[in-house]
Amino acid sequence: MRRSQIAPGVHLSYDAAQKFNRCRISIHFAFPARRETATAHALLPLVMERGYADCPDMTQMTKKLARLYGADLTVDARPMGCSHNLCVSITGIKDQFALEGEKLTQEYAALALGTAFHPYFVGSTFDPEAVGIEKQMLRKALEDEVNDKRLYCQRQANREFFGDSPAGVRQEGYLEEVDGLTPEALTEAYYEMLRTANIELIVLGCDEASTTAVKDALLMELSAIDRAPLPRAENIAMPRREPVRKVEHFDTTQAKLCMLFTTGEANPNPPSVSILRVAMSVLGGSATSRLFRNVREKQSLCYYCGSAAQRATGVMMIDSGVEPGKEQQAEAAIIAELEGLKNGPITQEEVDDCRRGLLSSMDALGDSLAALENWYYGQITRGEPLYPPEYGKVLTSAVSLDEVRQTLQSYSYSVCYAVTAEPGTQGKGGSEDVE
């Protein structure tokens, strides 16, 4: 993968990816998440994916993609710590496989750039009908969050953990704001994104000439915009504190337990992602991890139990599904396993067992353009030099027992959030603080 700056706040990343018979063009817009515009930016990809100026509705868009041998266009939003990321991507077969010599890459670029820079407007704003339809979809998604108890518990725990900090912005949007969103407000949020976002153009599977043509087309679009890219959001970490415990009661047969841990302060040089991956795999990220073997299998305290960590926000999450009434027992067992890794012996064998799963997953990255893009874009957002998955395997293999232990020792317990049922409360919603 080669990466170069092509304009202020704009970079091109390119890999010919010759082994694939398909190519992929993605335009990433990354900008600091803001509370004032969070709901508008959550709605934006839903409206943009419906069509653009030259292809203004979903029926026409579907037909056009079908004519391009079933190309796939997506517009999605991804929270990334304190940043918001909107990505327009298109994937399709390479030019040399077109039956009649069509210039497919040129068509793909026109679709992606049209979607990103020429949305379908009625007058000077997004189509009010499209906005109205997608507001209903966003509202339903936010209303249905509570029906997915695992997701709900995770998000509630995060909201308690991050509070009013920049990482606490609900990038999925705020239900109470959806009805008040207007086409004008959505259009203003869209133009703000074009002005302030750092843009990453990622081209995979195209030859150099086609990549240059895509780059030039992007620069032409940007020349018409008064750009003022904002700096990327910096790493943060929530301060250490006594653990806060909260419980919500629902009519549910399986309780959810989400435990969050903090590093306590933003680290300008946080552990490498390779060290984090191994540490999380040893703790709870694999079928040979401590949490899986001891809490789930030996003690039968949970249906699932996994761990994950974010470098950008200094948070580690352990979430599990437990039988109602066994939340405190499961919590104590999880803490005991974490303390055992912090202060007790860690064997080379258990680390190697967990490491093998990570190495196998890195082997699979080379089979998917989307997976390769995610691999490289993660490095870009972390400010790392770009290296292929093969070198990632080398770095992962070099992680030591001491690095795993030191990483886990950096976390302290901060929030415990449970969603459960209690006798006499089935069918009733509510929440309480637990002292």
Could you give the topology of this structure?
Elements (H helix, E strand, L loop, with lengths): L1 E6 L2 E6 L6 E11 L5 H11 L9 H10 L4 E9 L2 E11 L10 H14 L3 E2 L2 E2 L1 H17 L4 H14 L12 H4 L4 H14 L1 E7 L3 H15 L21 E6 L5 E8 L10 H11 L6 H9 L5 E7 L4 E8 L4 H17 L4 H18 L3 H14 L6 H9 L3 H9 L2 E9 L9 E5 L1
Helix pairs in contact: 1-4, 1-7, 3-8, 9-12, 9-15, 10-11, 11-15, 12-14
Concise account of the structure shown:
The protein is an alpha+beta fold and 435 residues long. Helices cover 43% and strands 22% of the residues.
Structural notes for this entry:
It is a single chain. The protein is of the alpha+beta class and 435 residues long. Helices cover 43% and strands 22% of the residues. The chain contains 15 helices and 14 strands. It has helices spanning 38-48, 58-67, 104-117, 128-144, 149-162, 175-178, 183-196, 208-222, 273-283, 290-298, 327-343, 348-365, 369-382, 389-397, 401-409, and strands spanning 2-7, 10-15, 22-32, 72-80, 83-93, 121-122, 125-126, 198-204, 244-249, 255-262, 304-310, 315-322, 412-420, 430-434. The chain has a six-stranded mixed β-sheet with strand order 1-2-8-3-5-4, with helices on both faces. Strand 6 and strand 7 (125-126) form a beta hairpin. Helix 3 (104-117) packs parallel to helix 8 and helix 12 packs antiparallel against helix 14. The protein is globular and about 60 Å long.
